[in-house]
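U., I forgot to send this yesterday:
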Amino acid sequence: MGINGKNREQFRPQRGLRQGDPLSSYLFLICAEGFLRPIELAKREGRLSGTNVGRGNVSISHLFFADDSILFGEASIDGENNLKRVIKDYEEASGQLVNFDRSLIYFSGNVDLATQDQVGPILGVRVSNNPEKYLGLPTMVGHRKKHAFVAIKERCVKLLSNWNMILLSTRGKERSVWGVRHLLEEEMGWQIGNGEFVNIWNDNWLPGPGNGSIMCQNIDIRYSKVADLINKETNTWKHEVINTLFGKEPVKAIVSIPLNPKIHKLIVNSLYPGARNISFGGEIAGTCKVSWPIWEPPNNDTIKINFDAFFNQISRRSVSGIIARNKEGLIMAACTYPWENIPDPMMADASAYLQAIIMVEYMGFQDICIEGDALTIMNKLNSKEEDKSCICNLIKEIKRRGNNFRKLSFRHVPREANMVAHVMAKERGRYEQSRFWIKEAPNMVEIMADRERRNRSPGG
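Result:
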């Protein structure tokens, strides 16, 4: 032992380290250092290969966590025998024994079952397909980084939900209310009263098809509120200003809006059909009763695909929104795909269905259930008669591709059960080009999917 920089006489310890001993806190480090030596020797001699990670192919042979260790090696008979020899050398040198009853072996996904059956019994430990957690955290994360920590997030949410509302400050409640308002406003439209609270360029306030927002290339900063377009004395629209700012279709939509300065409220467009009227500021103009989406998970290993389409009649453009989820409600894939020269909503829905099939083929799913709220499309796909409508080529292509799957079913669902796909389609404002996500989705979509997952009922 070295003391004050000098080597002292050798001695043989007669008792183990006790609690309170100055060396006790270093006990695990001392043991880990002893275990590290035979591992490094085996790597230098080529008996232990470890595993390569990252773009730089960094080789990792072990990870030490206090008195727990993770060893990486080749999934072969020679690899396991070499690993067993390293452990045996450590046991003989240190006098310690590995507790194999509390150990397990985990194989990566590219190791076939025959190899697992040969290699597993060599160490005499349990073979696990689902690695255990360490200190409450998953030991294996892989590509599904968000899903690996879902349980931790849910525990935090559960703890927070148990807080007594009485303990919340008035300021905290106010922030909560305004946070909900912002969420609802994204998919609701304003009913115009005096126009003082509605932004011309950012809010949804136009009646008719679309999401109710102004589609305009040039924004005149002299006009910001809808109130700037209203003659307050006569309570009528300023037609001259409106004709200067907007095109023919927006002008028709604007002047068709009846004005009532005593009413200022949000009305639901298409996202939450169960809701009615909401008022902010001033007198309450109505009540709010939101029916959240009802989505049922698939059975067994089936992947459920929900699709929807956003159609803009003016630009003759549509955007397909598609999301794939498993029986646990976890997102497996998602995409938005724009289409040009789309004549009508039926063509938009059929194109969205075709894109859903294409995405599923790309992901390699074999057992799938496709859901959508386009009843016409579903009827045509279920029909055995040859389709002769304007979308007959799309229907034929969908049916042809459908033969490539082991199991394929599709069914019509109400809009309430298809809301996540609906929101995916309305993401078209952010993504001009086609976009794909693997095991994740845009933030708003993930929030809704997570809510549906927590509220889901068994079956599907």
